[in-house]
Amino acid sequence: MRNKILITVTDIYGSKHFTISKIIKKLLLYSIIFVTLLLIFSGTAIYYLSKKVDILQKETLLLENKKDSLQSKNRELYEKIQAKSQELSSVNEKIQSIEELLGIKPAKEVNLITRVEAIHPDAALKSLMLQLIPNGSPVPYNGITGKYGNRIHPILKKKEFHQGIDLRAPLKTPVRAPADGIVEFAGPHKRSGFGVLLILDHAYGFKTLYGHLYKCKVKTGDFVKKGDIIAYTGNSGLSNGPHLHYEIRYLQISLNPLKFIKWDLKNFDTIFRKEKAVKWDSLVNQIRRHHLQTAQPSSLTAQK
Predict the structure, then answer these.
(1) Which of the four pLDDT bands, split at 50, 70 and 90, describes residue 174?
(2) Which candidate among 14, 106, 151, 177 keeps its CA 20 to 30 Å from the CA of 120?
(3) Structural domains in the chain (count)
(4) In a domain, 34, yes or no
(5) E strands within 153-242?
(6) Distance between the two ends of the chain, CA-based, in angstroms?
């Protein structure tokens, strides 16, 4: 009986006796200890996992917030890229139109920067030439009433060489300078028959003459810029109606003004073929050298 334990259970029906071996007792004790330890370990594991789940949930929420923020930034960047793409497309179209005006045909693989660098010198030179040399119509162009060349004078009825053209224009139409220049003469000129006359002296040997004016807005010695109003059309002198007599001279040689009226950036090179009286190659080279010199900073500027 030493290795056994007697357990007595008593109820209304009497007593019952159970005998348990000490080995079984140890097993029960170990089982209880194991279960207790298991419960403690499980509780600890559950607590740890619960904390881990909380941390993971917070990290998940943080990642979701970051994801939302990144998606929002991504949308903003996409919209900016779309806007820049449209701007780039617009710039490309403008560059292409300028290239067409300048007669430049870039290679297909050339980037925009290279194309802009190619445009700049030509555009600046052509713009300078159109600023200094008479071009365009001094009044809104509505046709001509008298051509350049041989004709019968409408009043004197004599054959003569008409050194300019007569531009159709209502009385007191503003006359604008076709290029930068200085006023050589402004006022009545009876001997010529032009009535109120204005002469502009331009760069590189060019002059323009305006006859039959109503009045001049500038005086002799005034400097004018291209586009400035210099006079108003009239019917003074030997004239049979309001119009503008317009001449262009180069080194005292009369040129057909109609060729210069049609000269602009779009058909820039046509004047070189149509007007042979001007040595264009030499003139363009001189303007180019002048442009390069003025574009370079002076030594005093460079030292600052």
Answers:
(1) very high
(2) 177
(3) 2
(4) yes
(5) 159-162, 165-168, 174-176, 181-189, 195-201, 206-216, 223-224, 229-233
(6) 119
